[in-house]
Amino acid sequence: MKISNKMFILVSIGILAMLFIRGIYNSIKFGDAEYGMAYVLGQAVGGTLAWFSIIALFASLTFLIIGFINKKRKKPIFMKSAITFGISIVSLVILVVIIFVSMNIENEHKKNR
Question: What share of the chain has pLDDT > 70, as a percent?
Answer without folding.
Answer: 64
